[in-house]
Amino acid sequence: MGVKLPTATKVCGIEFSGHRPVLDPRRSCSEVQRDGTGVVVAKSTTLPISDWSKQAANKLRGRVFDTVRAGGIAKEDITVKDEQGGGDIGDMDVFFGWLIARKVAKDSDGRTALMRAAGNGRLSEVRYLVEHGADKDAKVNNGSTMLMRAAENVRLNEVRYLVEQGTDKEAKDNNGKTALMRAAENGRLNVVQYLVEQGADKDANTNGGRTALMEAARLGYLDEARYLVEEGADKEAMANDGRTALVWAAEKGKLAVVRYLIEQGADKDGNGNGGRIALMGAAGKGHLDIVRYLIDRGADASCLDKEENTALVLLLSCDDTDESKILPLVKQLLSHGVPPLQSNKDGKSAISIAKVKRFRHVAALVKEYASKPQPEPEWTIVGCPMDAESAPFATGSPGTRVYTATYAGERVAMKRIEITSKDEMRRFRKEVRVWQRLSRHPNIVQLYGANHHQDSYYMVSRFAEKGELINYLEGERSAGEHLFGGKCEKWRKV
Q1: Interatomic CA distance for residues 115 and 144, integer angstroms
Q2: Domain named Protein kinase: which ranges (predicted)?
Q3: Are 457 and 428 in contact (CB under 8 A)?
Q4: pTM of the predicted model, to two decimals?
């Protein structure tokens, strides 16, 4: 298909004959003649639609401008009518775009004239092409739309116009990114604000599960991250690999974003399906300032990732590590509970890595802490609660039993758990940390503590009548229906 114009119409070396645009690359500017309506060239050679590549399109555009300059003709003096005899195009930039848009379609990257105009901030062209039927939701080869191009290039006027014309705000490219994500990852705050105001999905995710907040966080765009959080974006959303926005920011060394997300209550010890937490991400990339900040803010230094690495092992494994720079941080990690002798699944430990790298001071420090009694987690309960009933009143997963007991003179619930592997111990410690954090909420059953010593693994919590959280909430209700109205099911899941 091509452009349908009156037979033998020629403008600036371009002949429209039937359905094909025609160009003779051999014609020189000196051979250009002008008449009362435009510029006419005597001969032309057909340029098939199949050859209508980006290179050919750019040559055509160059010929247009060369012709205009050589003939002493102002662009404003050249007019082209559409097939109905109306629609004066005028400006040669619009003319070039018009050639591609009118069924000649796309360049070699799949871009239409409307995409080129939107991406380059030419609103008048965008308006003209949309008004003349250009496809607002056409996609290039990588799945991008013109709205995405305008959004990532901070073309707010074009973004606004396209949205007003009904362009699909939630369209995704081949990677699953939306216009909002493209704006967020390029630091286009005003575009992010506008799209959110227009109802764009803040928590839409890519094929890999990343959200607009994650894109802003991993690239260090604090203002964009702040705005999205203030507008209710999910701080704890996880990508397919288990990374949250906080983990992304920590891994990429974006301290300002890490600080902000922690201040807003992001889970610093959140552990996704990949075993990824912010401390591990920062340590593994050698971001000393972020590791230091997270430890200062109470991150769990004793945690392990799925490969059983400690934060210290990951830190020491970084390339180009300078012993003198990391030594104070090594001491800080050890003093906050990093298991000094922990080996990962490959058999590497802080000691073995320090020896290979000839970090004598680090090795000595690790040995010093290994000889000391390791500090207990703050939630540790020593000694089994007294007067536990002999029969459990509830059971859970295999090896899990819940008993009524008395602890410090108070009736409590005691959850006993059988642990036979490191993975089970890791899950136990994670459950304790999560429950402890949730216990700060007045409507969550309070965890008093737990014991993680061999052959006696249990958690102790306030007793919820009959073991039912709903009954507990009803008993604790003190302000009418504010706990309910559909929230009970939410608390049951928590």
Answers
A1: 9
A2: 387-494
A3: yes
A4: 0.66
